[in-house]
Amino acid sequence: MAENFLYLTFMKTREDLHQQLRRIDGKGYKAYKDIQGQFDFEDFVLHIDYVQGDPFASPSRLRLRLDNHFPEWACRNRSREVALRDFLARQFARCIRRFAQGQRGSGKSGAIFICQPGQEILERTAVVLDKDKLEVRFQVGLPAFGRRIAGQQAAAILLEELPAIVKHSLFPEALDEYRLREHLLTNEDADALRDQLDALNLVAFVANGALLPRASGIDPRPLESGLPFKSPDNMVVEVQLPNRKVSGMGIAPGITLITGGGYHGKSTLLRAIELGIYNHIPGDGREFVVTHPNALKIRAEDGRFVEKLNISPFINNLPGAIDTLRFSTRNASGSTSQAANVMEALEAGARALLIDEDTSATNFMIRDHRMQQLVPKEREPITPFVDKARPLYEELGVSSIIVVGGSGLYFDIADSVLCMVEYEPQDLTARAHEIARAYPEDRSAEGEKSFGALPRRAPIAESLDAQKGNREKVRAFGTRSLQFGTEEIGLSAVEQLVDNSQLNAIGDALLYARKYMDGRSLAEILEQVMADIESGSLDVLSRRKEGHSAVFRKLELAAALNRLRSLRVE
Ligand code: ADP
Ligand code: MG
Q1: Most buried by CB count within 10 Å: which residue of 23, 314, 341, 520?
Q2: Are residues 519 and 375 both part of a single domain?
Q3: In the chain, what is the greatest distance between 2 CA atoms, to the nearest angstrom?
Q4: 475 lies in some domain
Q5: Would 183 be classed as within a structural domain?
Q6: Sorting pLDDT into bands at 50, 70 and 90, what band is 194?
Q7: Model pLDDT for residues 12-40, shown as the tens digit of each residue
Q8: Are residues 280 and 355 in the same domain?
Q9: Which structural domain, as residue segments, surrounds residue 332?
Q10: Ligand 1 center to 158 CA (angstroms)
């Protein structure tokens, strides 16, 4: 109430905004700067924080703040609050489509934007709860004809469309309570399931009845005609969650193989596990496919940059006596890139590695007896993953889940062997071990028996230079890449990034992390940045309160840093 009282005395109103728009109608675009400020709309306060310089520039930044009218149950804990905010962002986006006329006039004129969530429920800054206030952050292309202000159109957007959007998206009575409740409780249960994984001694859980395949290679919605998941009987785990009981396949720590014929659903299962680090919206099919939060997809990525990384557990004796304790390249091969990806994952704190033969370098994964005869170890720098996966688990506690349909070499080291048969996993562990005994491989294990040393590098702050022209410029392109000053960080091989807003936040986090780059190790820096976000919010990363950030893991922050080609370490 005190806040309202201040507003009455100092704040301009909706009518003031209308008059200002009438006054600047038809003037040059710069006159829009006059409407920067706050306006009381009674139901909410509109903040026009930043007005774009011209109709073709990035759209203007606005926020609206209102009392939170949602009942206590909807904000009771963090899981529910995050899901409520996610739900409201979706609803707001839906109402933009319903009530806003959209683009009219030149450039981005007339369009209203809010970041558009996909299949995942992510904490994002588009909608935030700040004590008892709800804040929505969005953008508007302030309309113009040519470069002349279209005042009437602006009035229609800000004074008519926007209030209609707010009325139908941000008040409990406008929402379908059943859907809202399902959204919140699903998120709460998925979080609870992930929290229980350690206690259940699991690295991943795939619920019976889950629908794993996607509508298409470019459409992440469920394939409605897909066969629901069914766990092998002996692997079924039952878990009591706050709002339901689920049963499904539990994957224990250690080395798990996913084998089976081509096109029988191996990669689809692994992909679902990869994305089980996130919660999914009701109806997605993967609501209760949940993975250890520090599980990381590892793949080959030839051409990538690597900076002074210890890859010696996997690569030694490179031609030209190249140092593999401090291996640098601007153009890694398939196998060295995959080795680098594993070593960087360990450096950043990954607890499980997810590997698919489809995206792996064969010579990184296996080396058989005949090849050992033809190319002696002295002339093969690579120690294949099959010789390192076991010490990786036993010494460092890092599990592997590996899709492999093309080689039985992994039978000897696997704790568990699944075989996909027409999209349904069978547990063939005993059979695979029997085969391994009946047909022993002649090959000899390669490399040191123990895993070897882990990298410990200290990034140098000055090597993260985002200057372009006279200002720092960091910009995300889809989930593909980040522009960082004059550098481009390619992220298409970092497969667990799912949202453009995550890249925006990672871009901000790279700049932010520089203050900790004072000789500290990369692992320490990552922990520090994540702790700051945890104790504040994503807003700590950026001066401007923008609505286009979403949560990311330290593993993806490290991945972006490691792919910045100007990076230097001590
Ligand atoms: P693999 O890796 O074993 O060769 P994929 O996982 O790529 O096979 O799956 C092959 C095809 O089968 C894909 O088009 C995928 O969408 C589809 N698919 C996977 N799982 C299912 C399922 N449970 N029901 C129906 N189709 C599925
Ligand atoms: Mg495959």
Answers
A1: 341
A2: no
A3: 88
A4: yes
A5: no
A6: very high
A7: 999 999 999 999 999 999 999 999 999 99
A8: yes
A9: 200-453
A10: 47
Note whether 363 and 416 are same-domain residues: yes
Indicate the top mutation candidate among 258, 263, 403 to test ligand 1's pocket, ranked by most ligand atoms within 8 A of CB.
263
- Helix, strand, coil percent values for the chain (each to nearest 5): 40, 25, 40
Tell me the mean pLDDT in the region 71-81: 96
Whether 147 and 225 map to the same domain: the answer is no
3-class secondary-structure state, position 342: helix
Q: Identify whether 188 is part of a domain.
A: no
Mean pLDDT for the stretch of residues 332-357? 98
CATH of the domain at 386: 3.40.50
- CA-358 nearest atom, ligand 1: 2
Question: Closest ligand 1 atom to the C-alpha of 265?
Answer: 6
Q: Starting from the CA of residue 285, give the closest ligand.
A: 1
Cα gap 241→211, rounded to integer Å: 20
Q: Give yes or no: residues 441 and 481 share one domain.
A: no
Mean pLDDT for the stretch of residues 294-323: 95
Q: How far is the CA of 319 from the centre of ligand 2 (A)?
A: 33
Question: In the structure, what pLDDT confidence band is assigned to residue 1 with cuts at 50, 70 and 90?
Answer: very low
Q: Tell me how far the alpha carbon of residue 86 lies from the centroid of ligand 1, in angstroms.
A: 30
* Residue 405 alpha carbon, nearest atom of ligand 1: 3
- Strand 255-260 vs strand 399-403: parallel, antiparallel, or unpaired? parallel
pLDDT by residue (tens digit) across 376-418? 999 999 999 999 999 999 999 999 999 999 999 999 999 999 9
Give ligand 1 pocket residues (Cβ under 6 A). Answer: 212-213, 223, 226-227, 260, 262-268, 420, 423
- Which residue among 453, 488, 510 closes a domain? 453
Residue 268 sits in the same domain as residue 302 = yes
CA-closest residue to ligand 1 atom 10 = 263
pLDDT band of residue 4 (cuts 50, 70, 90) is low
Ligand 2 centroid to 272 CA: how many Å? 13
Q: What does the DSSP assignment read for 171-204?
A: SGGGS-HHHHHHHHHHHHHHHHHHHHTTTTT-SE
Q: Which pLDDT score is estimated for 5?
A: 56
* Cβ proximity of 337 and 304 under 8 Å: yes
Q: Which ligand is nearest to the CA of 265?
A: 1
Q: Whose CA is nearest to atom 16 of ligand 1?
A: 213
% residues pLDDT > 90 (the chain):
93
Within-domain flag for 185 = no
Other C-beta atoms closer than 10 Å to the C-beta of 51 total 21
Same domain, 423 and 469: no
